[in-house]
Specification:
single chain, alpha+beta, two-stranded antiparallel sheet, 2 helices, 2 strands, elongated
């Protein structure tokens, strides 16, 4: 089971406890939101890279030539 660690900064008391059902559900929901966002970001980055490569191909320039122009 997953646990939560609570630390009382005033007393230094450390309490380790099991997560509640609500906390577990929220953790799963947060993980799903993160996974969805990461997948969307990865797809956007791949799409951008593909578009960049398409432009290079249309211009007939290599990546090295494009890099030289950017300097």
């Amino acid at each position: 089971m997953t646990t939560a660690i609570e630390i009382n900064c005033t007393t230094g008391e450390v309490i380790e406890r099991e997560l509640t059902a609500d906390e577990l559900a929220q953790r799963e929901a947060d993980a799903q939101v993160y996974a969805d966002k990461k997948a969307a970001d990865d797809k956007a980055a791949a799409d951008k890279a593909a578009a960049r490569e398409a432009v290079y191909a249309k211009l007939g320039l290599t990546a090295d030539e494009i890099a030289a122009l950017a300097d």
